[in-house]
Amino acid sequence: YPQVVHLLCGTIAFIRVSVDVFLADTVRRTAT
After folding, report:
1. For residues 6-30, b (16+ Cβ closer than 10 Å) or e, as one string?
2. Of 12, 24, 25, 31, which has the fewest CB atoms closer than 10 Å, so is most exposed?
């Protein structure tokens, strides 16, 4: 099921980006 795999990969990529943004924002708040 290529569509399912593509959707799963897209979801994982989106989660990774969200986590990176969250961590970056947390570091900025802590640094400030």
Report:
1. eeeeeeeeeeeeeeeeeeeeeeeee
2. 31
Cα-Cα-Cα-Cα dihedral sign, residues 8, 12, 13, 18: positive
Q: How far, in Å, CA of 8 to CA of 10, rounded?
A: 5
Q: Which residues contact 32 (CB under 8 A, 6 or more apart)?
A: none
Domain layout of the chain by residue ranges: 1-32
> Which secondary-structure segment (H or E) carries 1?
none
Q: How far apart are the first and last CA of the chain?
A: 47
